[in-house]
Every structure is written in C-alpha cells, then in structure tokens.
Amino acid sequence: MKNFQTSNLGSLGLLLLMLVLNSCSRDLIYFPKTVQEEVEKTLDNGFDGIIVCVNQSEKSSLYSAGWNNRENLLPADAHLLFKIASISKLYIAAATTKLVAKKQLSLESTLAELIPELAGKIEYADQITLRMMLQHRSGIPEFIYEPDFPNRSPQESYLETATLIIDKPADFKPDRKHRYSNTNYLLIGEILDRTLGYSHHSYIREEILQPLGLKNTFSLLSEVDSNVVMSGYYVGYQDDLKMNDYTRPGGSMIASAEDVAVFLRALIDGTLLNKEEQAIYSSVYEYEHTGWLSGYTSIARYHSDIDAVVVQFVNTSKDEMFWTGLERSYSRIVHAVKNESANQ
User: Fold this and answer.
1) What is the CATH number for 276?
2) What is the 8-class DSSP label of residue 8?
C-alpha cells in the first residue's frame, strides 16, 4: 500500500485538514437536540453542577444538572442563589451611569478629585478619570494578585484593600490601552459611597433591583440564608467554598440566574435606563460579563440573532484551560437554544 502523500496539498489545505482532524473529538461532533440535553452533557467537562437561564419571548426557561452540594448529594436547583462575581460590575456601572445623568458625578472627574487622599499615592491619579476606571483604561494595578490579598479581612474598608497597590507603578499611562483590573471597581465603590453619603449597595437595591422586581439579587453573602446559595468547588480541593466571603465592589453580589437574565435584558432594552442614561452607559461599559471566584464561574450574554439572554452558572472553577471548557459549553448551550428556537 502506498503511503499517503501530501505533496499536492497546498499549505492552506493541509492546515484545514489538521483543523478538521483535531476538531473531530467525540464532544465536538455531538449536537444537542434540546437545551436540557446539552446542560446535562456539560457535566462531562468536570463540572460539579450547572444552572442555565434562557430569557426569550418574554419568559425565562430554567435548566439545571449535577450537584448543588456534592458531599450531601443535593442536586442542583435552578432557583438557587449564586455568587455572580464580576457580573456585579454591570450593576455598578449602571448605578454610576444614573448618578452621572443626575449630575452628581462627572465622567471626566479625576481620581485625585474624587478621592483626594490618593493623589500622589496612585500614579497618574490626577489624570485618571472616572470614565477610564469604568472602562478599565486607567492603568491602575490589580490588587487581587498581591501576595497579601488572601490574608486581608473581608470586613476592611475599600481603601484599606487599596493600600495593596499604593505607590506601585502604573501598568500603563492612562487611556493608552485596556487592561482589566478589579481595583478600578473597588475604587468606584468608594466613589459611589462618598457621592451618595451612604452605601452604594442600598442605592443599587433602591434604583435597580426594586424597580425591576428582582427579589433574588443581593449585594453581599451576609444578606442571605446560605442554605439557598449553591455550593462552590475548586478542582483538586475537596472543601465547599461557599462561605468564603468576598465583599469588595464589583464582585460581591449574589443572585439567581433568572434575576441576572431579567436584569441584563432590562439593561439592554431601555426598561432600566432612560434615553440619556442609556447613551451614557453605552459610552462607558459593555452589555455582557463573565464572573470568576474560587468555586464559582458565570457567563451572562445577550444574543441578538435570537433575542435571547443566556446565563450560565457553574459551581466549579480552576485555571484558564478550564475556562476554555466553560466557554465551549456555553457556546453549545446557545447552539441548542437556537435549534429549539428554529423548531418552534
């Protein structure tokens, strides 16, 4: 038998052949018939449990599979609360937008003007604007990567946490590039509290959650009965991470998948923001987000081609390679939603 020859294949053809061969895994050639079928299949990726909400045609459809708590063999329940981590930034950006529209804040105010004691302690504080902080274009270093951060009290003030990056060089000059930094929203939380004269958590509840009827969204773990919060697991670590308390702005919120889906749709369609506010929000932040905390990963996005908000909660976390599997699972779930939409 002759050996297979590739001499008559162009480089592009060979590349395409390799891509096809590499993609023909059992997982990728499987196509779901229903959303629930695909949700259940995601457990093959090492997920402990999963919750999905699809908000479409003026209703929410809920799905779940796997474990809420694996030690006690409690099944996942689509109505459970979940640590939504950085999806919280959407709520903070919306709250900031409302205050800007009311002229209580200006997007062009500098960090040095808004928090004077940080002048000379955060590089370029006199050039970094509120707009840049909202957009992650400030160059302010990330506090969560500092070695001492895991030892900090969750009850300390926002500025006490910010001391982790005080006097450190900027990642880049303001507005030169985009680099995600949780420190931006930590400081925005402080700015909101100073502007309001009370906690921005209360403002979010009064101006965002209550008007939308979101009764299953909370600012902090301490506000809820932990028994209705989904357990969380880190791959290779046995213990439930549910009671690890994260209190910093932009990552602290707890919500049901349905509440997140309803919020995101309202943020997009004008239900939450008036025209002026919508224009401001569109100029400073995005309309989708992901979230990561130890034991908790989440994705919330709007898909205009099928007019659907799809929210995915997985109570398992690990590294960047694990996140690749989360994104692939999310894409497959969206594909299943599209299939079901086309067949209705």
Assistant:
1) 3.40.710.10
2) T
